[in-house]
């Protein structure tokens, strides 16, 4: 095909020839007519070519203009909003700029209803066949026989409320192992939380001493020696120290000095002890440790107000504070701003290694975002009409981070929304007492949910097993991470089906954990009994082992892995 450039050259040459022939007048009239006709034809072809090129250029320009206009007036949805319902309105808060609101088409639609899964969301059908049993056997030596005179054990706990709770529990068992009198543990007042509360301001100290009087002799303070106050010898025992470890490391010093204080006492006792000592742990945790009357009264009031709002409700322990995220080393897509802010906080812990956010999240160490935990709950069958009590500190990102969760569950409550400032005044300046209020609500709720696998999640999972196997949902973060990463490439039905599959073994059902698996405070199997006429724990576990998902079978004691991760910084506690 003749190109436009070639036609131009031909036209130009004919034009020159025509001028020459006119000037010389050497050609015949017929020849001139032929040249003129050919010249007109070429001019017509060139005009048509120009018209076609112009039309093509106009079409391209129009398309580019249309794309430009669409990008201005219809911006694409952000990654955080892809799961909200179709035509939903989303408010974006940008610092220093006016909030914008727009509608968008989601890649798939999250239903408002949780659907019909064919089971009760609020309890387990087999839970009535299980009960807590922690009474001592007839062979268990009582305190009046076992305790030796002039042998005192002191404990300095570490971390937040629930980490300190583990220390108090294990302190009683350590005193029993050492045949010593226990002095009421000293709470941590130096860590990040700077809570000045003492033991008696959070726990009922008289009840604690009285309830355990047959097991361990407990006194409120170290008696004077020779009429004078004396300073005990301080020791720090290694993690997971078993009875033999205490007898070789602590007992010789205790015999020489008569008083020893164990410092940074959290997870300093072996997870695996004989049954009698495990039952003693349960008596301390589930019966002797009782909050003070003011805390109990306020906690019960919060529970009553939630039950006035709905027959059933969820309590969500949402760990998404800046300090938690900085310590974990996770990254949530906030760009340089997030890296700078959390990086500055992370520098508080001098011994932390450089973070590897991708590896941490891949290993299931990152707390779920508020949006992710909301999607998990919807996939598990909880609809938008469900009332949710959120136990949380200051969430990183504020209302912008909470917006997707509130969009999925608009009946959103907290201490601050269901109680007045005056009612909370006596607790609000003390992080431990505020955490105790949340602990009570999370214990009394129909369904407890956590976005993490920290200390409070573990303690409450074990407590809810002990008192009737009430549902306690903790995320299988390692599997859910991959699912959330690829969520834009699947339908909601496929997504929700996978969530339900991955959460098998993480829901708080009877027999979902094998005896001896996990951390004892989470799985107190030595203190769980079954009604006669049903399968024993071991028999059911062996049968269920065949049916368990490959993922659950492949997890090798994941709870100790998580605990070891928290051990890197003793001052920090994922309460």
UniProtKB/TrEMBL annotation:
TM annotation in the entry: 53-74
Cited InterPro entries: FucosylTrfase_pln (IPR024709), GDP-Fuc_O-FucTrfase (IPR019378)
One Gene Ontology biological process: fucose metabolic process
Keywords from the UniProt entry: Carbohydrate metabolism, Fucose metabolism, Glycosyltransferase, Membrane, Transferase, Transmembrane, Transmembrane helix
Keyword Lipid metabolism attached: no
PANTHER family the UniProt entry points to: O-FUCOSYLTRANSFERASE 16 (PTHR31818), PROTEIN ROOT HAIR SPECIFIC 17 (PTHR31818:SF16)
Protein name (Swiss-Prot/TrEMBL): O-fucosyltransferase family protein
Source organism per UniProt: Gossypium darwinii
């Amino acid at each position: 095909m003749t190109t436009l450039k070639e036609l131009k050259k031909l036209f130009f040459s004919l034009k020159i020839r025509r001028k020459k022939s006119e000037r010389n007048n050497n050609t015949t009239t017929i020849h001139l007519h032929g040249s003129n006709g050919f010249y007109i034809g070429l001019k017509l072809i060139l005009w048509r070519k120009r018209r076609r090129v112009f039309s093509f250029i106009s079409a391209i320009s129009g398309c580019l203009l249309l794309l430009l206009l669409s990008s201005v007036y219809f911006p694409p949805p952000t990654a955080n909003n892809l799961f909200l319902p179709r035509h939903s309105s989303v408010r974006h808060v940008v610092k220093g700029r006016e909030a914008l609101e727009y509608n968008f088409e989601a890649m798939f639609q999250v239903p408002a209803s949780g659907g019909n899964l064919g089971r009760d969301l609020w309890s387990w059908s087999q839970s009535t066949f299980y009960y807590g049993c922690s009474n001592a056997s007839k062979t268990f030596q009582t305190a009046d026989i076992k305790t030796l005179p002039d042998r005192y054990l002191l404990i300095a706990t570490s971390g937040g409320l629930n980490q300190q709770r583990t220390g108090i529990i294990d302190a009683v068992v350590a005193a029993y192992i050492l045949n010593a009198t226990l002095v009421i543990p000293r709470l941590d007042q130096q860590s990040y939380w700077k809570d000045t509360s003492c033991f008696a301001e959070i726990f009922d100290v008289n009840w604690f001493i009285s309830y355990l009087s047959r097991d361990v002799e407990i006194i409120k303070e170290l008696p004077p020696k020779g009429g004078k106050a004396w300073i005990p010898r301080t020791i720090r025992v290694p993690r997971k120290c078993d009875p033999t470890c205490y007898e070789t490391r602590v007992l010789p010093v205790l015999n020489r000095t008569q008083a020893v204080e164990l410092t940074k006492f959290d997870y300093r006792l072996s997870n695996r002890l004989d049954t009698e000592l495990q039952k003693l742990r349960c008596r301390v945790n589930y019966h002797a440790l009782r909050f003070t009357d003011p805390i109990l009264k306020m906690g019960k009031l919060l529970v009553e107000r939630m039950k006035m709002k709905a027959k059933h409700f969820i309590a969500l322990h949402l760990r998404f504070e800046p300090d938690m995220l900085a310590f974990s080393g996770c990254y949530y897509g906030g760009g340089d701003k997030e890296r700078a802010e959390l990086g500055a906080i992370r520098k508080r812990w001098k011994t932390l290694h450089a973070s590897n956010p991708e590896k941490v999240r891949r290993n299931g160490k990152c707390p779920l975002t508020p949006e992710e935990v909301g999607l998990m709950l919807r996939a598990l069958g909880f609809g938008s009409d469900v009332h949710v009590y959120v136990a949380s500190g200051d969430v990183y990102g504020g209302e912008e981070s909470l917006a997707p969760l509130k969009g999925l569950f608009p009946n959103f409550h907290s201490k601050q929304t269901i109680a007045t400032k005056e009612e909370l005044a006596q607790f609000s300046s003390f992080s431990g007492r505020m955490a105790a209020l949340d602990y009570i609500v999370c214990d009394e709720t129909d369904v407890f949910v956590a976005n993490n696998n920290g200390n409070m999640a573990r303690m409450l999972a074990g407590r809810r097993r002990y008192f009737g196997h009430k549902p306690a949902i903790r995320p299988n973060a390692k599997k859910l991470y991959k699912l959330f990463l690829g969520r834009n490439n699947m339908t909601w039905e496929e997504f929700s089906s996978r969530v339900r599959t991955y959460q098998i073994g993480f829901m708080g059902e009877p027999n979902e954990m094998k005896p001896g698996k996990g951390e004892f405070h989470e799985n107190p199997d030595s203190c769980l009994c079954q009604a006669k006429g049903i399968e024993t724990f071991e028999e059911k576990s062996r049968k269920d082992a065949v049916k368990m998902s490959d993922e659950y079978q492949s997890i090798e004691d994941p709870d100790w892995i998580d605990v070891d991760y928290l051990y890197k910084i003793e001052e920090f506690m994922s309460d």
